[in-house]
Amino acid sequence: MKNNYIKTAPISLKAFIIIYMSLALVLIILTYSIVTIKLDIGSQKKQLDEDVWEQCNKLSDDFVANEFTMVGETRDLNYSVDNIVTFFDGSLIVVNSDYRILKDSSGQAEGSYIISESVMNTMTGKIGRSVSELENYYQYIYPISENGKIQGVILVCASKNRIDSMKSQIADRNYLIAIVAIAVGIVLVCFGANISVRGLKKMNEHMEIVQHGQMGQDIPVSGFKEFRALTENYNSSIKKLMEIDTSRQEFVSNVSHELKTPIASMKVLADSLVQNEQADLEMYKEFMSDIVLEIDRESEIITDLLTLVKTDRKNADINISEVDINSFLEAILKRVAPLAEARGITITYESYREVVADVDEVKLTLAFTNIIENAVKYNVDNGWVKVTLNSDHKNFYVKVADSGVGIPEDCKDKVFERFYRVDKARSRDTGGTGLGLAITRNIILMHKGTIKLYSESGEGTTFTIRLPMKRVEEKASSEQ
Ligand code: ADP
After folding, report:
1. What are the percentages of helix, strand and coil residues in the chain, rounded to 5?
2. pTM of the model
3. Ligand 1 atom 2: residue of nearest CA
4. 375 lines ligand 1 (CB under 6 A)
């Protein structure tokens, strides 16, 4: 049979973890590398700018000291210019306020004039020092000021080579680190994935053992929190299934035993008749009426069993109608009265309110008859049974108290079990099948009510039943 609820993934959980984590790792490390390269390059460029401005500043001071001329003692000036040109692998031009080139590091343009927008902007003070990026150079323009007045401009071209080679060095270094980190990361991810699925593998192995019949074996709880929770849930589900299985087996063996008992009695009776050659009509009549009693008992057990099975189903049919609970209880008491009178038991009924409720009248009659009949059956001669009815805005409560034999403490929960009887002989004498309270409880539960039992051995028993007056239908799960 195909299970529609299990959608099989095309890959294993381990492969999924490895692929997913590795991709995430590669993505993170590559992003980190790219960002750090950019930041490194940025700080290198900033350093270059600072170096250029520092040199320009010094040179500017030298030119101011030399009164903006290249005449006289210019050895220091030339030395500074050569230094800058060598250091920045570029060129340098110094322009005076007439736009005449005072110094050109290449020596070719000295004395000629320079007409350039950026130089003019700096000279006129429109913009301060500025940097622009050309194809192979960064161009720096620096104003030479004296007493707050711009007297000239230094124009430095610094080669991009230094930055470019740094860029490739940093990139090489970072990518190498990234590759090593990714490789180590993937190994760790594989290792982690292996550990993660180990718990599942173990669980699976144990489940296979359980599947092959060894239901009693618990799967050892170990590993991660989620696996522990899963294992614990699995173990408790298996335990519940085993309990259900055991109770089913018990029920089947109880049913067989209960059904066999009357048959065995009938066989004994019939055998005695067959083997007794002198049996007269009187004896036949006596034995046959005993056999009829056993047949009645067998039929009673079968009827109770069928009722139990019907009320046991989760979606058992329930025919709700509006019922006047006062007259309903009075009718039941009237039917039980002869049984009570026969043993001198007094039944009293007290109702505190008028109660009308939505109930299944037939099923509830069965439930209350069981309880009230039990109160009489397990009572002492000349005892009493008190039935009271009360209600609040939501529920009604029926209390059935008796002065009977009571139920011992250790049997209180068991009396609701199928075929459980405190005193087997007494129950059989009074015609009990041991199914009455199990059926009653099923019916009360069908009505979303509760049944509680208070009892002292030898001092009587009280059953309290709470039932809702209005029936609230559950949202049908079959809507899906
Ligand atoms: P039965 O058919 O034997 O009466 P029930 O399921 O109705 O089966 O009850 C189960 C057992 O609970 C009874 O055999 C009896 O021992 C005990 N029991 C039920 N009601 C009372 C009661 N009112 N007082 C004392 N014992 C009771």
Report:
1. 55, 15, 25
2. 0.60
3. 432
4. yes
Query: Considering only CA atoms, which residue is closest to atom 25 of ligand 1?
Result: 406
Residue 92: which of 151, 133, 137, 146 has the closest Cα? Answer: 137
Question: What is the distance between the alpha carbons of residues 357 and 471, in angstroms, rounded to a whole number?
Answer: 8
| Segment 374-403, tens digit of pLDDT | 999 999 999 999 999 999 999 999 999 999
CB-count exposure of residue 271 (10 Å: 0-12, 13-18, 19+): exposed
Residue 405 Cβ < 6 Å to ligand 1: yes
Q: What Å distances lie between residue 120 and 60, 67, 116, 125, 141, CA to CA?
A: 17, 21, 6, 8, 10
Helix (H, G, I), strand (E, B) or coil at 92: strand
422 CA to middle of ligand 1, Å? 7
**Sign of the dihedral defined by the CA atoms of residues 28, 32, 38, 42, in that order:** positive
Q: Mind giving me the DSSP string for 64-87? A: HHTTT-SSSS-HHHHHHHHHHHHH
Is the CB of 370 inside a 6 Å radius of any atom of ligand 1? Answer: yes
Query: Does the Cβ of 422 fall within 6 Å of ligand 1?
Result: yes
Residue 307 Cβ inside 6 Å of ligand 1? The answer reads no
Nearest CA residue ID for atom 19, ligand 1 = 374
Query: How far is 86 from 95, CA to CA, in rounded Å?
Result: 20
Does the beta carbon of 379 sit less than 6 angstroms from any atom of ligand 1?
no
**Residue 110 tokens, joined:** 């000295």
Q: Has residue 164 got a pLDDT over 80?
A: yes
In single-letter form, the type of residue at position 342 comes to A
How many angstroms separate the alpha carbon of residue 333 from the centre of ligand 1? Answer: 18
Cα–Cα dist 235/232, whole Å:
5
What are the structure tokens assigned to 303, written together?
Answer: 């009827």
Whether the CB-CB separation of 433 and 258 falls below 8 Å is answered with yes
Residue with tokens 């470019």: 164
The answer to whether the CB of 34 falls within 8 A of the CB of 221 is no
Cα–Cα distance between 362 and 219 in angstroms, integer?
47
pLDDT tens-digit series, residues 295-339: 999 999 999 999 988 888 766 788 999 999 999 999 999 999 999
Q: Ligand 1: which of 416, 421, 462, 463 to mutate, most ligand atoms within 8 Å of CB?
A: 421
* Cα 256 off chain centre by: 44
Pick the atom of ligand 1 nearest to 427's CA. Answer: 3
CA dihedral 372, 378, 382, 386 (to 10 degrees): -30
399 C-alpha vs ligand 1 centroid, how far in Å? 16
CA of 434 to the centre of ligand 1 (A): 7
